[in-house]
Amino acid sequence: MIIQFYIYGFLKSGVKTWKYQQRIKGKKYSYRKTLGKYPTVGVNEALARAKALSHKIYGGIDPREELKSEALTIQLGVLIRKYYQ
What we know:
The chain has helices at residues 43-58, 63-84; strands at residues 5-10, 16-22, 31-37. It is α+β, with helices and mostly antiparallel strands.
């Protein structure tokens, strides 16, 4: 399994960040995510985060859709609690 994971350039502020990029089957655009800033997030932690994302994608889970469904679940839970109070 090849994990597309790299340090993405230098920003004007001089900050270095770990980036992850993966093509999702059937999607027009590839999935990109910032894994963290370089000195704060070490190589091993960034690689672990990249592997976790890669396993989700290879398992057929689109991380973007997963975030949307989690946000909807949280919003629905709040509405239900307010209704029953």
